[in-house]
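Lab channel / #folding
Pinned by the channel admin:
"Please post every new chain as: sequence first, then the structure tokens as a reply. Keep commentary short and put observations after the output so the thread stays searchable."

First post following the new format, from NK:
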Amino acid sequence: MFDKVLIANRGEIALRIHRACKEMGLSTVAVHSTADRDAMHVRLADESVCIGPPSASESYLKFAAIMAAAEITGAQAIHPGYGFLSENARFVDVVAAHGITFIGPTADHIRLMGDKIAAKAAVKDVGIPVVPGSDGGVATAEEAVKLGNEIGYPALVKAASGGGGRGMKVAKNAEEMAKAFNTARTEAKAAFGDDAVYIEKYLGKPRHIEIQVIADSHGNVVHLGERDCSLQRRHQKVFEEAPSPVITEAIRSEIGEVVVKAIKRLGYLGVGTIEFLYEDGEFYFIEMNTRLQVEHPVTEQITRIDLVKEQIRIAQGEPLSFKQEDVPFIGHAIECRINAEHPETFAPSPGTIEDFHAPGGLGVRLDSAAYAGYKIPPYYDSLIGKLIVHGVTREECLLRLRRALGEMVVSGVETTLPLHQRLVDAADVNSGEYDIHWLERFLANSES
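Reply from TO:
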């Protein structure tokens, strides 16, 4: 058991973790760079420690600085949030070596799922369906072309490490495969320090469906349904909802059972997300995220389960307080990621927020650490906040979202609020008839 948690992150997720800790009677320690000295979670935490200059490599990614802060303040546990060190197995080892609890999965599972090739093989062994493709890494362009010919084009070359669309290239035919292979390897090496790539069949119009799971140290595993994250730009999620407009209760139960059995066999601990491409009634594994997801609030809204509190309870050795049959799926929830970016060019827009007004009312939640006068630094992710709306039906949820977007005010910087206002008015979004390529087409049509 522990009573003081160090939050090894920043922005809205740091504030989200702080709030959960306070509601559980736990003290919090905020760590921050010099650029974040005035951040909301720093102001609200019981203690705060400056861990370095603005550069993430010299602050939020610096093991020694974070561990020193934990030692100085007597924190017994560290919550990594998402991003930064949340999926760094070596950091988990360091935390354990200091006798401190890491609020998350084991280092071994982080390592396994951090290697996309090994992860694909591991989940295939425990019964999760995978996309047709190479069984492991592909070493040469000639081998890549041969595999492409076997599985059919278009084919996808993907980096074994990392994510976010880097080291990922599509080849429409054998002639393009060699170039795609070499380009993907170069990008992967530059971005992740690892040029290993693998080949998969490229699906034409899939949805991005992910299943939220949670597992304790007593052998209990539960799934919390799916999230549809198909509205993406350059493989980055923009708009997420739960449940998916295309997943029935029967399909949810079936894939949920497959995932639960697999997670049990893996012996996984904590929260995690299995991401799939879904097309023509079939699920194909993409990757597993061994951390809290940015879009976790939509699951919380429809299940009434606080995922951050459950993470903390699991880390304290407690069993899950609910069984699969206890999990409700109530209504519909949508999350819009509001970024400090130009709504058309997506160029970052750091600066000072002059006016800030959060929308409110029944079923409206805003996860944000922003406020009027807050200076958005240019060094980190541009997320201002996540607007999450819940309704009894998807139709009500969309109407409520339209209203909430109209109420929200952020001035002084460019934001993606206008983009979300356009999305909520789009016919395909309202009907739920979209895929992972839809937003790119929508944006391209808007420019022409």
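NK: The first strand starts at residue 4 and ends at 7.
TO: also worth noting, The radius of gyration is 21 Å.
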